[in-house]
Amino acid sequence: MMSKPVGCRDLKERILRGSEVVVLVALVSILGTFANLPGVRAQDSSEVYKRVYNGWKWWHVYCYRCHGVDALGSTLAPNLSDPSRKITYEEFFQTTRNGAPQKGMPAWNQLLDDKQITDLYTYVRARTERVLPPGRPDEAGANGGPWTPPEGWPKAQSVVLGPAFPTPASETTSSRRVYVTNEGSGDVTVIDAATDSVLATIPVGKRPRGIRVSPDRRTVYVALSGSPFAAPSARNEDLAPADKKADGIGVIDALTNKLIRILPGGSDPEQFVVSLDGTRLYVANEDASLASVVDVMSGKVIRTIPVGEEPEGVALSPDGKIVYVTAENSQTVSVIETETNQVKTTFKVGPMPRTAAFMPDGSRAYVTSETSATVSVVDTAQHRVTHTIKLEGQNVRPMGVAVAPDGKRVYVTTGHGGRVFVIDTSTHRVSASFEVGKRPWGIAITPDGKKIYIANGLSDDVSVVDAVTHRVIARIKVGERPWGVAIAP
Ligand code: HEC
Q1: Which CATH superfamily is domain 16-161 in?
Q2: In 3D, which of 193, 190, 318, 210 has the Cα closest to residue 266?
């Protein structure tokens, strides 16, 4: 009888077994710490559910395109839920982190942290052990409701918690990326907020306007529209017909800076938000008086919600429960509940509302009104306007709005007014204003609150403003007719 040669995999497994002991020792100490925390039980089934759900989510953001939906494999990459090949946590962790680039498996250490990889493993393990049916964990349970982890699953704590690997130092918020849509040139400019230099220009399609980064910063969504660009003086009958095929939501992979997919977004999508869990988009469809709810994973519009006439601005409350959709013609804001995807109430604001933004604590929202040069302050508990702030000056047409992360100031761009106004949220008064480029439009603030980025639609550049001194510290050349700005959260 021939003795079995010691293959590479066997050797790897032996080494791994050795290190598992170390991991176990570390685990025991983590578990000890967990057990001492009041109210935290390591195997709490809601914690297991959360981990599996997150793992499923990441899977269908990054892994499914090679390893197949439901972890079943495809022609591009192996089935990871094959019960006959139960991959160990260690193997999974190392392969996912470092990849096998020569064999076509990318390294994910730049995109996924240790906890996210552990969540992915927990999901894959639930599929391998056949305790989780195919589909979304929030719909895979009894009567299409959330799945419940079986009592006592998983047996190995590492499946849920992972070992005590050191997590990489978190990046500083000033090293974030800034994304700018260029409505005229049909592309997105990527700026490094640490150096204020342009990293990439990504062609995306027709008339990119609204732009948002997913909560995990891995995906950038951009609204595309085949409706013709119309100057304010243009008459409808002079315009070319809309090219509806060009409507959609472009999906950019933030790692490679490439457009990887176009999702449907309803008719003429302009602004939108990403739900807190990153799985849904709420899109305003200006010419249809609708908001579309897009399921990112399936790439389908799962609901269309009637809102006011000519909806445009879309804002998500910080707790993710409410979406405000502003409607220009009806001068209203529709309040959509994300749990039910229904309009809970509608309220009046100033004329021609363009955009809305919430305070970080969710207590108030600010809505810009273009034709009255005002900003409506909304009490979000009552969904009611409590103050109206007038912005004085020539041609002032309030458009973009951003709230500082500390909630003390609100910044409003004014289009042909050429200035950005600063509102003190404690007094509801304008405390300052400063000049930027021509027709300032989209605006965003870095998460550390230090810098403000403003898209200047008619000077084809972005102004970078110091949030303390209100001085323009850089002007960055971008594409044609820059429109929206988004900064990774
Ligand atoms: C671009 C395609 C691609 C993507 C995307 C991808 N993989 Fe892979 N993956 C592969 C290929 C190909 C292999 C097989 C490599 C080999 O033959 O060693 C592989 C192998 C693996 C293995 C080792 C399997 C084993 O049996 O040893 C793991 C674990 C894995 N991938 C996890 C992931 C996870 C988790 C993700 C998502 C974060 C992911 N992969 C995304 C292509 C991909």
Answers
A1: Cytochrome c-like domain (1.10.760.10)
A2: 210
